[in-house]
Design a protein that fits this description.
The protein is about 0% helix and about 35% strand. The protein has no helices and 3 strands.
Length: about 55
């Protein structure tokens, strides 16, 4: 993941950040567009997996 960016959407929470998250394999969206290699995700929608690379 890269450095977080401020979420400038009108409905964003104060101080909310966005992260670019790469996929393990390219993905298509619900309309069939893509394939996409990464997506921009709000920080409140992310969680660290137990035993993941960011877990001590």
């Amino acid at each position: 993941m890269g450095a977080p960016e401020p979420n400038l959407h009108a409905q964003a929470l104060d101080g909310e950040l966005m992260y670019w998250v790469p996929f393990d394999a390219p993905q298509r969206d619900s309309c069939g567009d893509g394939p996409y290699r990464k997506a921009q995700i709000r920080d409140r929608c992310l969680r660290v997996e137990p035993g993941g690379p960011d877990t001590p």
